[in-house]
Structure formats: C-alpha cells, structure tokens
Amino acid sequence: MTAGANHRIDRSMTITHETSEAAEITIDRGKGFRAGIADYVTTLKLFSRNIRLYLIGSFLMGINFQVFQLLLNLYLKELGFPESEIGLVGSARAVGMTTIAIPAAILLSRIRLKPILIVSITLFAILSVGVVTSDMLELIIGFAILSGMAFSFYRVAGGPFFMRNSGKKERTHVFSFSFGVMILAGMVGSLGAGNLAAFLGEQSGDILLGYRYTLYSGILISLLALVPFMLIKSAKPSPEERSLSLSREQFKLRGGFYFKIGFVNFLVGMGAGLVIPFLNLYFQDRFNQPANSIGMFYFLVQCAMLVGSLSGPILARRFGLVRTIVITQLASIPFLLILSYTYVLPLAVSAFVIRGGLMNLGGPIVVNLGMELSDKKEQGLVNALIMVAWTSSWMVSSAVGGTLIEQYGYTFTMNITIILYVVSSLIFYLFFRDVEIRSSTKQWTIHRSSA
Questions:
Q1: Three-state SS for 336?
Q2: 200 three-state secondary structure
Q3: What pLDDT is attached to residue 235?
Q4: Which residues contact 115 (CB under 8 A, 6 or more apart)?
Q5: DSSP character for 31?
Q6: pLDDT tens digit sequence for 386-436
Q7: Cβ atoms of 301 and 352 closer than 8 Å
C-alpha cells in the first residue's frame, strides 16, 4: 500500500527553527472541523504552478498504479501462477525500490528533479510493458525489479520537490492534497480497470486478454504524466540539501531517530505485505467475485481513503500527529478481524472499506512527522528511509504472504497482520510520545530535540 508528508504550517500553526538539532511546531486545535475546511479552501489557492503540474502528473501515475494493483495478481493467476509465485512478483518490485532508494535520495539532493522525473517515468513504462508481456516467471520478476528501481526515483523525488516548491503556509496541505490526489486516481483506476477488463474480456472471449490490454492502457496513461512534468520549471537544490553526507558522524548524531522512524514503518509494512497485495484474490477466492465487482470494492475503499486523507490534518489539529496515527491504526484492527473471519460478502466489503480508510489516514501524517523531525539537508534521506523500511518489509512479507495463504488460508495470515499492526502502533507511541506536547492553550508542540 503502499505512499506523502509535509511541513504542516497554516494560520493555526507556526514553526521555529532553533538549531539543526531542535525545532518546534505549534499546532492549535482551533475551531475543529470548520477551521480545517476553511484552511483547505484558503491554502489551495497558494499552490504554485509547479505544484499543480506535479499533482496532475501524480494523478496520471496514480491511475496506472491502481490498475496494476487491481489487475496484475488476477492476470498472473489467470496465467496459471500460484499465490506463492504471485507473491514473488510483488516482492520483486519492492526489491528494486528498496535497492535504489537511498542512492536516489543522495542523487536527488544534488541535481534538478525534473530530468529525473522524466527519465524514471519513461523507463518505468517500458519496463512495465515487459512485466505484462512476459509469461516466464524469471522474466516477469526481472522486469518487476527494474520497474521498481525506476519507480523509486519518482517516489523519492516527491518529498524534496514539495519542500522546494511550497511555502510554509500551504506546505502541510500540499502533502495531504497530494495523497488525496493519488487516492482519487486510485478511485478512477479501480472503477475503470475492473469494468474495462470485463468489457474487453467479453468482447474478445478471453478474460486474459481483457486483463492484458487493460494493463497496457494503464501504462499509456502513466506516459501522459510526461506532459505536465515537462512543463515544470525545476529549481536547483539548496546548498544545505547538497551538504547531505552519509558519514559516521551523521549516523552517530541522528542514527537513533533514523532507526525509530524506520523500524515502526518496517513493522507496518511487514503486516501489510502479508495480506494487502492479495485482497483482490481474497474476494475472488472466498466470494467468487469477478474483476468488475472487485474493481468496485477498490473504488469504495479509495473513497474512504480520500475522506481519511483529507481528514488527517483536521484530526491532527485536535489530537496531534502522533496520537492521530496511533488512534486510527488501532481503530482499523476490528475491521481486519471481520475480514479475517467473515464469509458474508456485504460484511467483508464494509470492513474492507472502513479498514482501508482508517489504516491509510495516518500514512501522510507519518511522513509529515518524519519531515518535521528532520534537518532540511536530511529530509530527502528520511523520506527515502521511510520508503525503504516499508518496501523492504513488504518485499519479504509479500513473498511469505503468498505461501502462507496458499498453505493456511486468509484467516491465519490476517491474524499475523493484526499482531504486527498492534505491536507497531504501541512501539510508535513509545518512540514518539515525548516529541509532541500539548500546552495549556490547547496547542500541540513538536520538539525535534526529543526525537
């Protein structure tokens, strides 16, 4: 599942940079929901042209991402691959993303982002064609690894790009809105891909061709993202960004924080990778649902995720960043339990939708917290570390998850995910509860020196 974050600053939030080791962010609970809506309307007008172009490109990339998330497993299953081998393909893309993420972060801290975006998206499209066209497992895995490496540059570039092209007032909303745009793209991709695959399958008399041509359509849509990205006027990295160095002194000074932010994301990714890549197969295997119905289920969960992502800043205003993350992750657990045990389709779909909205609400807030607790020169590195922690654990668990589901079924595997989610939430709270304090004026203050 896995994806934005930001410097959260608006008319009810201020940031004070004191030293490279300490800074604080004050978050006023304000007037609650109405104040949050008013902030969105006001700050959306502040988005720069570069930000708007990037969001358009992200929307197109997001459609392709969701097409592959929905259909690739079904396509491979139709080709005759078992769940264990399908899990290896999902793991392969994560291998590529994990391998290149840290070098990508270092490179992106030294050069303009625009050329990297254009090259990475072009290569990603070409290599994705290889994934869909090949019918040998070894070739599919090889193309998946390389496509993951290309996609990693696009993913790592997002955080630094937003930091370079946004001001203090709108920065939080840029990140949250970016996440919302990706979810909106997922809604379009889910609904369109399921119906298009079913239509093409009926017309050709072969659902396998329906899956394949729909996957090709997703790749073509991702290539359209080149148009807005080419129109971006990218700025050079600041001298402070170019000063990033992975030295022993850097890790001695900041290694504890790097471990904390990475470890909690590793645990969540480990749990997610066991089951999330296989939920489309879950609805097919347990409830015998066709691709267009599964696409509708994913459309509904994307709707819930959109509401959740836009609610994140409002909840964080009231409860703080750390507590919002913990509360929403723990609140998703009962619904994962329902998914695990139910054989009633409406109940399963309802739990799927609500769980997705709750669990993904905290995603951009986690990255936001990581950015706020980082020096400017290390923000790209921390963004990459969060991604590496997630994708490396996903890399392992998606491969293991396919085997576990094949041998023991969905209930057993989902229960392991539940345990990992609970442990991750508790550890996250223990690690970061002291970085955020609420004052007598009901403001949340984040102290980087406490990380």
A1: helix
A2: helix
A3: 67
A4: none
A5: T
A6: 888 887 887 788 878 888 998 999 999 999 999 999 999 999 999 998 888
A7: yes
Note whether 350 and 301 are within 8 A (CB). no
| Exposure of 2 in the CB half-sphere (CA atoms within 13 A) | 34
- Distance separating alpha carbons of residues 204 and 10, to the nearest angstrom: 53
Going by CATH, does the domain composed of 23-450 fall within 3.10.20.30? no
> Would you call 445 helix, strand, or coil by DSSP?
strand
- Gyration radius from the chain CA atoms: 21
**Cα of 281 vs its chain's centroid, Å:** 21
DSSP-derived letter for residue 20 is: S
In one-letter notation, the amino acid at residue 7 is H
* Confidence band of 319 (pLDDT split at 50, 70, 90): confident
* Beta carbons of 450 and 435 less than 8 angstroms apart: yes
Residue 331 has φ and ψ, to the nearest 5°, of -65, -20
DSSP 8-state symbol, 21: S
Q: What is the rounded average pLDDT for all residues in the chain?
A: 82
Long-range contacts of 121-126, Cβ-Cβ distance < 8 Å, separation of 24 or more: 121/57, 121/61, 121/150, 121/154, 121/222, 121/223, 121/225, 121/226, 121/229, 122/223, 122/226, 123/147, 123/150, 124/150, 124/151, 124/154, 124/222, 125/219, 125/222, 125/223
pLDDT tens per residue, range 168-220: 677 767 777 888 888 888 888 878 888 899 899 888 888 899 999 999 999 99
Q: Where are the domains of the chain?
A: 23-450
Q: How far apart are CA 186 and CA 19, in angstroms?
A: 40
The pair of structure tokens assigned to 289 is 């649902």
